[in-house]
Amino acid sequence: MKRISLIAILFVSALFFKATAQETTVNEKLSEVNDKVTGITERLATAESDLSKLTKIKISGYIQAQYQMFESPALESTSNNYFSIRRARVKFTYEATDGIKFVLQPDFAPGALSLKDAYVVLNDRWTKSFSLTAGKFNRPNYEVEYSSSQREMPERSAVIRALYPGERAIGAKLEYNPLNLPLHVQLALLNGTDGLTINNSAGVNLNPSENKDYDNYKDIMVRATYNLGLGSFGGLDFGAHGYFGSLKSNATSTLSSDYTTVTAIKFGDAVKRNWIGGEFQLFADLLGGMSLKGEYIAGNNASVGYSAVAAGTDPVKNPPVPGVANFQNNFAGYYLYFIKNLGKKNQFAFRYDYYDPNTDISGKDVAVAKFSPTDATVLKSKTSGKSDLATTTFGLALHHYFDDNLRISLAYDIVQNEKVGSAGLVTEDYTKADGTKVAKGMDYSKVVNQNALTLRIQAKF
Amino acid sequence: MKSINSIKLAVIVVLLGLIGFAFAPAADKIVVKGSDTLVILAQKWAEVYMKSNSNVAIQVTGGGSGVGISALINGATDICNSSRKMKNTEKEKLKARYNTLGVEVACAKDGITVYLHPTNKVKELSIKQLSGIFKGEIKNWKEVGGADAEIKLYGRENSSGTYVFFQENVVKGDYAPSCQTLPGTAAVVNAVKKDPNAIGYGGAAYAEGIEICKVKKDDNSPAYLATAETIKTGEYPITRYLYMYLRNKPTGALKSYIDWILSPEGQKLVVEMGYFPVK
Question: Which of B242, B65, B275, B88 is nearest to B157 (CA)?
Answer without folding.
Answer: B65
